[in-house]
Design goal:
The protein is of the alpha/beta class. The chain is about 25% helix and about 20% strand. The strands form three sheets. Strands 7-4-3-9-8-10-11-12-13-15-14 form an eleven-stranded mixed beta sheet, with helices on both faces. It has a two-stranded antiparallel sheet with strand order 1-2. Strands 5-6 form a two-stranded antiparallel ribbon.
Length: about 525
């Protein structure tokens, strides 16, 4: 005779199950310590910063007196006032938008109220780091994201929040997640994309823009920066063919790879975000002059004692014109501590005649990086039929008022245009710049005779990947430990992909010129 079925138990009478113990961070951090025998600074005393809790420097050691002189904070938990709320958020793992699976973002502080709990959320959070970046932009929002308040909807995605059209100045803060185990210094790990085929994002493998919080009040935005307690920050201005989200990735990557202790900021002008948009970008970039000046002054007056400015490629046109405009308006303050002009896509003669004497007036120091390997600027020279300021052909090495540095000897990726952020030698030298080291103290630099006077050249130290970028790196004596790959750019099959993209861009620009 079969046994009678047990009577159903009232759920209220069911015994409570003890919650599973929180996974220990020790194995993950131990693995990170072994992998991160790198050139990041020794851990500094706790400073407020821009990365969510649970992150450490590579070796977890206590900083010495010299390391404490480095900029303060990119890898500390920010105050709650400085952390953007979860809106708009990335859709959950089980959500499908436009036939594409979108992967959720785990956070140390837990999921948002409308997120369903998953068994792997905490485990995912252990393997990612968060970087909070403050931004300004004069891009227009996409239609699904327009209006206030901004509700998290499948249509309003972080990657499509701002467009390539012009709008009014808007400020805010955003969060970028970086995979702890998969990230390589100098890389921006993103899922493969070709035409309309997009592979899903994975927070454990890819750098992801997880949250955006526009701040309607400029005074409230300044209050967030003041609440962070940061003493300094760097402001990144991107170049041509760069979307808003790509600029966010780069600003976060630079801050993370340098273990920057200050606040990362960036300004995004309305670039079209594609190679054929070169001429459109060239016309639009300088139209952002007034909103960028407003943002620069807003950031300067937000309580930061030092504000560094790092401009790349066509973004140098915006920076140069803005600083020139401020001088013409009678500005004489030291607005910028370190002015870094990387691979400027500016006519070399225009730079010499219009900007060379003016730019150093508003900066404590100005640094110019050039290279004769830069294929992107070589293409721009071919289109414009005039050398660019970021090429050695521009003959600006040794220009008065600038620390001129030739990066031609470095091993670079195919286009050799983003070397300022994806080459470890360059990242280390920029670190030295931001901590106030002069060229004579930086062992990566060898003196050379430039076109206009004394200049410097970065040497391709093969073991640079294992050097720690503490202030000792910026002195004469350096210990090269182990072996490292100094370049994190495209390689292998991606070299061919880069070539095809360059050819497509060249053909596109040629067709645009003929049709115009």
């Amino acid at each position: 005779m079969p046994a009678p079925a047990p009577e159903p138990r009232d759920p209220a009478e069911a015994p409570e199950m003890e919650p599973a113990p929180e996974p220990s961070e020790e194995p993950a951090m131990a693995a990170r310590d072994l992998e991160e025998e790198s050139w990041r600074p020794e851990a500094a005393p706790p400073d407020p910063g821009v990365i969510a809790e649970g992150t450490e420097t590579g070796n977890g050691a206590t900083a010495d007196a010299s390391a404490r002189d480095a900029p303060s904070g990119a890898r500390r938990p920010p105050p709650s006032a400085a952390r953007p709320p979860s809106r708009p958020r990335a859709p959950r793992r089980d959500e499908v938008v436009a036939d594409e699976e979108i992967v959720t973002i785990g956070t140390r502080n837990g999921a948002s109220a409308d997120d369903e709990p998953t068994g792997s959320a905490d485990d995912t959070a252990e393997r990612i780091n968060e970087v909070v970046v403050y931004y300004g932009t004069d891009r227009a929002r996409s239609e699904p994201c327009a209006g206030e308040p901004i509700a998290p909807t499948p249509d309003c995605k972080t990657v499509d929040f701002y467009t390539g059209s012009r709008g009014e100045l808007e400020v805010g803060a955003l969060t970028v997640t970086i995979p702890r185990d998969e990230h390589e210094r100098g890389d921006i790990e993103r899922p493969f994309t070709w035409w309309k085929i997009k592979f899903p994002e994975d927070p454990e493998k890819h750098i992801i823009l997880s949250e955006i919080e526009p701040v309607p009040s400029r005074s409230d935005w300044q209050a967030k920066i003041q609440a962070s307690g940061a003493d300094e920050g760097f402001l990144y201005v991107h170049g041509y063919s760069t979307s808003f989200e790509s600029a966010a990735y780069r600003a976060a990557q630079i801050a993370y790879d340098l273990d920057y202790k200050g606040l990362p900021l960036f300004y995004s002008w309305p670039s079209q975000g594609n190679a054929p948009g070169y001429f459109t970008d060239g016309e639009v970039v300088e139209l952002s002059n007034d909103p960028f000046i407003d943002f620069l002054l807003l950031a300067k007056e937000s309580g930061l004692n030092q504000l560094h400015l790092v401009a790349h490629s066509m973004g140098n046109r915006l920076v140069a014109k803005a600083l020139n405009t401020l001088v013409q308006r009678g500005e004489s303050r030291e607005l910028v501590s370190e002015l870094v002009l990387a691979a400027p896509d500016i006519d070399a003669e225009r730079f010499r005649e219009e900007f060379a004497e003016v730019l150093p007036r508003l900066a404590r120091r100005a640094t110019l990086y050039v290279s004769d390997q830069d294929r992107a600027l070589a293409a721009a020279e071919g289109i414009r039929e005039r050398p660019r300021a970021g090429q050695t052909a521009g003959k600006l090495l040794g220009l008065a008022g600038f620390d001129s540095i030739d990066a031609s000897k470095l091993k670079l990726d195919f286009l050799a245009h983003s070397y300022y952020a994806n080459n470890l030698n360059m990242l280390a030298d920029i670190y030295c710049v931001l901590v106030g080291s002069v060229p004579e103290e930086r062992p990566l630099l060898a003196p050379i005779t430039g076109d206009e006077g004394p200049a410097w050249q970065i040497q391709p130290f093969e073991a640079l990947g294992s050097i720690r970028p503490d202030p000792a790196l910026c002195e004469k004596e350096v210990a090269l430990v182990g072996e490292g790959d100094e370049n994190r750019g495209l390689g292998g099959i991606w070299w061919l992909v880069g070539l095809l993209l360059l050819l497509a861009a060249t053909v596109g620009v040629y067709l645009l010129r003929r049709s115009g």
